[in-house]
Amino acid sequence: MKVITKTIAAGIISVAMLSPMAYAKKHPITGEELAANQTYTYRLLDEIDSLDPQLIEGVDASHVARDLFEGLVNQDTDGNLMPGVAQRWVATPDNMSFRFYLRQNAKWSNGDPVTAHDFVYAWRRLADPATASPYSWFIEIMNVENASAIVSGEKEPSTLGVKAVDDYTLDVKLSQPMPYFPKMVAHTSTFPVNQKVIEKFGADWTKPGNMVGNGAYVLTEYVVNERSVRERNKYYWNNDATIIDKVVAMVINDENQAYARFKAGEVMKTDIPAGQFQRLLKENPEETKSMPQLCTYYYNFNMTRAPFDDVRVRQALSYAIDRDVIAERILGAGQTSAYVFTPPKTNGFVTPDLAWEHMTQKERDQKAKELLAEAGFSKANPLKLAILYNTSEDHKKIAIAISQMWKQKLGVDASLENLEWKTYLETKKLPDYDVSRAGWCGDYNEASTFLTLMMSDNAQNDSKYKNPQYDALMKESTGMADPNVNYTQAEQLLARDMPIAPIYHYAEDIAISKYLKGWPYNNIEQNIYSKDLYIIAH
Amino acid sequence: MINFILRRLMVAIPTLLVLIVVSFLIMHAAPGSPFSSEKPLPPAVKANIEKKYGLDKPLYVQITNYITNVVTRFDFGPSFRYKDQNVNDLIAEGFPVTLKYGSIAFFLALIIGVSIGIFAALKQNSWQDYSTQGFAIVGQVLPNFVMAPILVLVFTLTLGWLPGGGWEGGQLKFMVLPVIALATSYMASIARITRSSMIEVLHSNFIRTARAKGLPFRYIIFRHALKPALLPVVSYLGPTFVAMVTGSVIVDSFFSTGGIGIHFVNSALNRDYSVLMGVTILLGALTILFSTVVDIMYAWIDPKIRY
């Protein structure tokens, strides 16, 4: 009898141990119970442009690349730098050279070790004109020695200021001091690639089965305009700490359809359809989120064209824009009014104390009227202008609102000029416009990623602002231990000269499953690493 | 007939060449380049990229090189937008998808549309006729960009029967909604064309004669009326088949099928020259091919037609 009882008891225990409850894992830090199925499925707005770290341009493609490859550094959920392939790094006192000490347990997905030589190869590849990388300018702004000369074909890629001292030590030499250099190597264009694989497969090296990466995941499936799948890389050095097993990116162009599929449980994360944030926040607050982004929406004034070469006109037009109305009522999804170009949440940035920001909108409107009158415009002699924007409902709504504000407050006759994306870019670049919309997102979390745009010789300076004092401040900032003093002054010059009218700082609005945890809500760059996410039991 | 087919093929080659050259010139005349972006590239970088894609050469050299590559190696070049893909791969992956759901939608639209059309014609001015006509009008005025979200609302969100998108290698449950969204308006058009044509034929003298001879009604319909009634339908089918099997921008975009339909618009907006040329040539070649097929079917249906 005893034997029978013991056998039955053993059977019950065995069955219990095999049941999901008995095997339910818990998150090692939070203690939350984890779901048995750790598949994270999300929506991509458009097919990604590339999976090759040195050829990627788009933000969505960078998210994928952060799963498939790992750079020298990573970021945590707050955007702070964390060791990646590099365990630690040191700078010389003049911030002209950096040494990265690489971990010895980092491996490629074929089991080969990741070495400093892989980074040297990738960085030279980024600068090499033969690669024709659309981001080769990034290694120029990183100021790696000889980068510019290599990109323009004047020097050989082998002369780039990056060297493998040994397999696990990487030295970088810069052409000018860059205290924030380590922040820049979180960018996907600097991620290592496997030379042997690229040489073996050529352009096909990014195809599933061919691709070898060093990230937490490997590419297992790729169907253009439908889906891509990445699954756990057993060779990833921190694979034991990775919880998500599989990541599926679904291409869904239509944002309303994407939201429908979110509601149907087909995707765990998507973007909120335009204009629906407030409604969805009320209906489903737990799964409707807004996060600040490292981006600014602004209007350019074409300073090569009268009367926009007159600072009074530019100031008047900028002052008369009621930013709160645009950010809170027209958009209303977490965007914030902008009075400076650099988003205030940018790491280390000290926002200047600007007099016009502290005025009430009524006071700003009054000042705007006075300035425009001084410039010679009145209701009898109205200022006429056209607002150029690219096709988008939001750009249109904002342009209509601003043109109405200008009309009512200043008597300005503003017409709207809508062009499709590529034609708009071409027109803006010429520049053949009066006032044009623009948006800018930082490539790294530091104010210079915004402020260098307004330097006289910068190709992205669409308003054609030229101020030697501004240029000098920005040039000087690159060598400073704390460049934020100069950044604050530079913003003050922009507020005075008003080549652009900052309008709002972006927010990213997402619908995200309440069961998906670890999302980097406080990372203003929104750099997502699937290895840091997890799905709780539900 | 063989002479006719050969003649048509001989004309097809210069037609395609003209299509390639004209499309190429129009495409390059559009403002903006494949590589213009919010972050303009430094001149040296832009020059490197243009050199890689051969855009640094004069336009006539680019056209010559393009045609040579297409004709001699069937190489449509690399995609400018999707840097890891070439156009041959994009078409090879996407076309079978659109061909599959497009063909099913086509035959569904044809069979149901013709059946409804004949039924309505036979029941002319009855409640059955009015209700099928009503159905056809609703089907025609509901474009697929309206139809698609309604289908998702009903079958995915409310009933939970079918997935709202994806393709998954063409499994049946993923194909149902794209097929219905694509087929509906074509089905309605075919029904209306068939009905009108059938009514016209039924009132013709030879049908009256057949009836006077006491032939069974079913025999008259299938033996005498159907073939001439289908002539206008057949002329509609050629371009319709091409439009359906090359995919729909809306269906591809809404249901994420991975088909090539989406490239027709996206490649133009992205100035992805090579993809735009690839899908244009595919569409042109299929249009010529199916116009020929329609002409052959015409001759089969109506032996009086001679070429």
UniProtKB/TrEMBL annotation, chain A:
Record family assignment: Belongs to the bacterial solute-binding protein 5 family.
Solute-binding protein family domain residues: 81-461
Signal sequence annotation: 1-24
Presence of the UniProt keyword Lipoprotein in the record: no
Protein species of origin: Gynuella sunshinyii YC6258
InterPro entries per the UniProt record, alphabetical: Peptide/Ni-bd, SBP_5, SBP_5_dom
Molecular function via GO: peptide transmembrane transporter activity
GO biological process: peptide transport
Tree of life domain: Bacteria
A matching Pfam family: SBP_bac_5
Subcellular location field: Cell envelope
GO annotation, cellular component aspect: ATP-binding cassette (ABC) transporter complex; outer membrane-bounded periplasmic space
Protein's UniProt name: ABC-type oligopeptide transport system, periplasmic component
Keywords: Signal, Transport
